[in-house]
Design brief:
42% helix; binds fe (ii) ion; Nucleotidyltransferase, domain 5; single chain; 328 residues; 12 strands; binds adenosine-5'-triphosphate; five-stranded mixed β-sheet; 20% strand; alpha/beta
Length: 328
């Protein structure tokens, strides 16, 4: 098969990513740049940050790969889901580069990007994927030609829940690592556990945890511990039921929250008890990154997909199961 070099542009939220991959799956460059966090994410400010940093980050990525724009044979970008203003920066850059250099263009579903890079960088072949991040919480598996969602949050994402909790208590941003550290020295205080069928809800837990942390006599370590135990047990329960239902034999973790060692421990234990394999990709491809978009672009392109300009509109609510998976 002919070797193809793909440039991937990722900008769904506060992080900008540029990745360069070849069609054998070698990551030639994978640069990311964060908008400095102060309070919550402001979509327009994040988009401004991405617009200002895209060119310099692209130059760095090309330098890392030892390539020039003329060597790029395919361009992939995140079409969604994500924040409109951020998505549009990546889409406009991708279209412009495509037109200027005459390079074919592919729009990628961000959630599927997480799954495909996980399949590339681990031994997982046909996993049930637990995708947990600041903006997403989904349990996904391949069935009947699509990646189907078997469980998801009904309100906020798990990462958003933890970040917001940390922000409410001035613990710093992002909250994930801080809460994980504090939780190591904590013990249990009761918090509400909300699983509805196969779906999850974190907003009540966020309110209750914030209230508990502000209550006289409660230690912050204990609330952090219970927030993690409760939220992660909910996630593990839904993942286990989806594993039983789909009869998949592997669990793959994806998204920024997947670095959490307590969550990994709970899901790994559950997977082992069911005789399923457990996989976590390396840290540089776990959170949002350009390489996952480039790799998914290569898979799509190889299966015959190229998008015409008018097919590259961004989709803020781009559903995982909206995409017909032509490459598996
Ligand atoms: P997406 O656009 O896919 O929703 P994102 O913008 O949230 O992704 P990621 O890098 O995938 O970006 O994830 C960031 C999230 O990961 C934040 O919510 C952060 O708090 C969380 N996180 C980082 N480290 C940890 C940790 N050790 N424990 C729990 N959560 C963590
Ligand atoms: Fe993501």
């Amino acid at each position: 098969m002919e070797k193809v070099i793909c440039l991937g542009i990722e900008a769904t939220a506060e992080k900008l990513g540029i990745g360069i991959l070849d069609s054998e799956g070698n990551i030639l460059a994978n640069r990311t740049k964060h908008q400095p966090l102060k309070g919550g994410i402001h979509p327009r400010e994040a988009a401004q940050h991405h617009a200002e940093n895209l060119r310099p980050l692209l130059d760095l990525a090309l330098q890392d790969a030892g390539l020039a724009m003329g060597d790029i044979e395919l361009i992939a970008f995140s079409r969604g889901p994500g924040m409109g203003p951020c998505l549009r920066v990546a889409a406009v850059a991708a279209r412009t580069l495509s037109l200027k250099h005459g390079i074919p263009l592919v729009g990628v579903n961000h959630c599927i990007g997480h799954i495909e890079i996980g399949r590339l960088k681990t031994e997982a072949k046909d996993p049930l994927t637990l995708y947990v991040s600041g903006g997403n919480t989904q349990v996904i598996a391949f069935e009947g030609g699509r990646y189907r969602v078997f469980g998801e949050t009904l309100d906020i994402a798990i990462g958003n829940c933890i970040d917001q909790f940390a922000r409410n208590l001035d613990l710093g941003a992002p909250g994930g690592p801080v809460v994980e550290r504090l939780a190591r020295k904590g013990s249990y205080v009761p918090l509400p556990y909300t699983v509805k069928g196969m779906d999850l809800s974190f907003s009540g837990l966020l309110t209750a945890a914030t209230g508990a942390a502000r209550t006289e006599g409660n230690r912050i370590e204990d609330v952090c511990f219970s927030l993690q135990e409760t939220a992660f047990a909910m996630i593990t329960e839904v993942t286990e039921r989806a594993l039983a239902h789909t009869e998949k034999e592997e669990v793959l973790m994806a998204g920024g929250v997947a670095v959490n060692s307590r969550l990994q421990e709970m899901v790994r234990t559950m997977a082992r008890e069911r005789g399923a394999g457990f996989f976590v990709p390396p840290g540089d491809v776990l959170g949002d990154n350009g390489a996952m978009i480039a790799w998914t672009g290569i898979l799509m392109h190889r299966s015959g997909i190229t998008h015409r300009l008018e097919e590259t509109r961004v989709e803020q609510r781009y559903r995982t199961d909206q995409v017909e998976v032509t490459w598996r």
